[in-house]
Amino acid sequence: MNVNKISATLMFGTIAMSSQAFADFLSDSKATLGMRNFYFNNDNRDGTAAPSKTEEWAQGFMLDVKSGYTDGTVGFGVDALGLLGVTLDTGKGRHVGSSMIPSDSDNRAVDEWSRLGLTGKVKMSKTELRYGTLIPKLPILVANDGRVLPQTFEGGQITSSEFKDLTLTGGRIEHATGRGSTDQTGLAAMGGTRESNQFDFAGGDWKVTKDLTAQYYYAHLDNYYTQQFFGLIHTLALSDNQSLKTDLRYFNTDSSGANSSGTTGYRISGYTENGDGEIDNRTWSAALIYTVGGHAVTAGYQSVSDGSNFTQLNQGSLVDKGAGGASVYLYTDRFIQSFTRAGEKTAFGQYAYDFAAMGVPGLKASVMYLSGNNIKTASGTDQKEWERDFTLDYVLQSGALKGVGFGWRNGKSNSDAARNQDQNRIVVSYSIPLL
Length: 435
Prior knowledge:
- The structure is a single chain.
- The chain is mainly β.
- The protein has one domain (32-433): Porin.
- The protein has 1 helix and 21 strands.
- The chain has one helix at 3-27; strands at residues 30-44, 53-66, 74-89, 112-124, 127-134, 137-138, 141-142, 152-160, 166-177, 184-185, 199-207, 212-221, 225-239, 242-255, 280-292, 295-304, 345-354, 363-377, 380-395, 405-415, 421-433.
- The protein has an 18-stranded antiparallel barrel. A two-stranded antiparallel ribbon has the order 6-7.
- The longest helix has 25 residues, at 3-27.
- The protein is globular and about 60 Å long.
């Protein structure tokens, strides 16, 4: 056969294969534009700090583009996340510390802010590697989404489901971008003013039976702490519309590196047993959730040991004021308080109702009450606090505005260890599929 014909055949074959691979990459792609209109009002009812009130209103846009994978044994893809926030109303006297909106040079709220995150991904069989912008939801790391734009992290994560009923996850996080910021920072624990750029984690979820899931995760924040998590989730079906769910969680957190030696900048804030800022904590919780029809009743208890506060990633004390805002994998992580102070014992209960059971789909409401005592701080060793939260959500089910969601969050907290606060959040959200 003529060499030129062989070359042409190979060339067109390669182009055909590439076109097919690229076609799969595009055909499985998805793009969604999410919009969130967010009003936030937090009144500090006592104390001397000024201003006593945070009040901000902003519009957020989130363009989430997820590609498919190229064809072949190993598939490649790329995701993009575009975030834009627009300030609608606030003022210097009502804008506090970039809690939702970034601050400019004179500490006023900026008019708008944006960021772009790219994530490369590789998939082989049932294993996926992602590197770039991540929004993790793991027991040892939960991205905060409590304002108009979410907190994001930068790093790599691998997830594998090669073994039946077992999902394994591991990776390394190196940077974070706060919910009220456009700037990346390193990583820290609450009170830490020195950055770490290495958060390693690994763990898995094992579906022991169809009703029982066991969890184990390990995490290490360089120069701050090492943490282990154990979890059990069991659902007992009592009838067709009735069930009892049991959720058990245990965290074991110890100091590591510079935090162990009390090095300045790596010490955490809050009470520690020897006053040295060293992390030493055991936290466990148990929750029972009884569901019947549209009703769901939760009752639970949580215990935090008195060596130090419960600790996970928190960049709030770093130089970048917009780095604040963190979530933790606990039932007690609520609108205002998290009930994670050293020694704290918390009882909590919640009632939720889904009005679909009454023929009103899309309407949901809940009320939760938490009461904590035995709190240890520098100023006292038997302090108390409580919080009451109410939520109301409705998603339009038909018409031109079908899918538009309305939400109201109201919280009230009284605490011996913090300022008494009343908080309201009003959220209007809508998502448009583009691909």
